[in-house]
Write a structure and sequence with these properties.
It comes from Roseateles flavus. InterPro entries: Cyt_c-like_dom, Cyt_c-like_dom_sf, Cyt_C_IC, Cytochrome_c-type_DH. Keywords: Electron transport, Heme, Iron, Metal-binding, Signal, Transport. This is Cytochrome c. The chain is an all-alpha fold. The chain has a single domain, classed as Cytochrome c-like domain (Cytochrome Bc1 Complex, Chain D, domain 2), CATH 1.10.760. It has a two-stranded antiparallel sheet with strand order 1-2. Helix 3 packs across helix 5, helix 4 packs across helix 7 and helix 5 crosses helix 7. It is globular. 26% of the residues are buried. Bound molecules: heme C (HEC). The site of heme C has 24 residues, from helix 3, helix 4 and helix 5. Heme C binds next to helix 3, helix 4 and helix 5.
Length: 147
């Protein structure tokens, strides 16, 4: 029992970034009732659950069966509407998450990604749920940055 607790504490201590970067950590995590939505609410938790598999936990992306662009240092993150469009609607091999995520969640994960990987100060990196709702409304619009 004691060993298990020590292990748990060690694992917790090993991920200070998760704790520090999560401004919502102190708020209780409300749970969604429907099973097909993602329950995570904080940016770091959402990134880990939804984005890291393709873009890698450190945001450096990957090349293999497909090309997953690096988010680390990616200048396109500066364009919030473009990043919002990618997360909501997807593009080619990038899946859209608009149906699974609330605007709060989209804003949380993108604020986190822009601050952590886009090198922006927290205030500048912040994306609001209202901005997400705006882009959601105009889903037919083409992305601000062409590929
Ligand atoms: C299944 C793999 C996969 C997942 C999961 C995924 N992405 Fe992507 N992502 C991609 C691919 C592939 C692209 C390149 C798409 C293209 O060709 O335009 C991309 C592109 C992007 C871009 C645009 C980068 C650029 O240089 O244009 C952003 C921003 C982005 N993803 C953010 C996210 C975020 C945030 C999440 C989690 C909510 C996420 N992605 C989850 C595969 C993924």
């Amino acid at each position: 029992m004691k060993a298990a607790l020590t292990l748990l504490l060690a694992a917790w201590a090993a991920c200070p970034a998760l704790v520090l970067a999560d401004e919502a950590a102190s708020a209780p995590e409300p749970r969604f009732s429907s099973g097909w939505r993602f329950e995570q609410r904080s940016g770091p938790a959402l990134y880990g659950a939804l984005c890291a598999a393709c873009h890698m936990p450190d945001g450096r992306g990957a090349r293999g069966a497909g090309a997953y662009p690096a988010l680390q240092g990616n200048p396109r993150l500066a364009a919030a509407p473009y990043a919002l469009h990618m997360v909501l609607n997807g593009h080619r091999a990038m899946p859209g998450f608009g149906r699974q995520l609330s605007d709060d969640q989209v804003a949380a994960v993108l604020s986190h990604v822009r601050e952590r990987f886009g090198g922006m100060p927290p205030e500048a990196a912040r994306v609001t749920p209202a901005e997400s709702a705006e882009v959601r409304k105009g889903q037919q619009a083409s992305p601000a940055v062409a590929h």
